[in-house]
Amino acid sequence: MLKRSIIFIDHANLFHNLVRLKIRINYVAFREVLRNDNYLLGTFVYMGIPEQLLPKKYAFIKYLETQGFVIQAKNIKESPNGKKSQKGIDIFIYRDIVELACEDSFDKAILVSGDSDFIDAIIKLKAMEKEVEIWGFYNSISHRLIKEAGRRNVHFIDGILEDIKY
Questions:
Q1: Which domains does the chain have, with CATH numbers?
Q2: Alpha carbons 49 and 54: distance in angstroms, whole number
Q3: CB within 8 Å of 86: residues ≥ 6 apart
Q4: CB atoms within 10 A of CB 84
Q5: d(Cα 139, Cα 70) in Å, to the nearest integer?
Q6: Tell me, what's the pLDDT at 78?
Q7: Using CA atoms, how far apart are residues 90 and 151, in angstroms rounded to an integer?
Q8: CB count, 10 Å around CB of 104?
Q9: Which of 54, 80, 117, 140 could lock 90 by a disulfide, CB 3.0 to 4.6 Å apart?
Q10: Residues 64, 44: Cα–Cα separation, whole Å
């Protein structure tokens, strides 16, 4: 039986790893690999958005939207010393995962992130008897996240790069 699944992408985590590897990916192909044999209900992309959106970033967001991705955005904050940072994205993802699980909106959460911030979400999903699948990068995924999700539920983006490169 197909699992009702939702993909939750921590874009900053994905983006910084792709920059480190100096590659770009085809997001549609990436979604298809993650979907696998599941009944995909939606793909949420969580990202920080600056007040002044550059044309390139605007075009990227519009492209994702035309391909059926749902952009979940928070404004990027600037500190008094001029440093820009996104705050609250992980909490935003956590809230959506847990609320949608409580509403029985999915059978399986597919989380693209290696952050240990999601350990509590994994614990809650398991308590609700929801399946969870984690996709991260070898060099940046939390060992505690792997342990909590279970090694068989963790997959590495590094291993599929040839299939999703742009």
A1: 4-164 (3.40.50.1010)
A2: 10
A3: 12, 47, 48, 74, 76, 77
A4: 11
A5: 28
A6: 65
A7: 22
A8: 10
A9: 117
A10: 10
Confidence (pTM) = 0.93
Nearest residue to 31 (alpha-carbon basis) of 124, 125, 143, 163: 163
Residue 156 CA, distance from chain mean position: 13
Cβ contacts of 58 within 8 Å, gap of 6 or more: none
Note whether 5 and 101 are within 8 A (CB): no
Report the distance separating Cα 163 and Cα 166, nearest Å.
9
| Backbone phi and psi for residue 35, each to the nearest 5 degrees, phi listed first | -60, -45
- Asked if 38 contacts 6 with a C-beta cutoff of 8 angstroms, the reply is no
d(CA 125, CA 128): 5
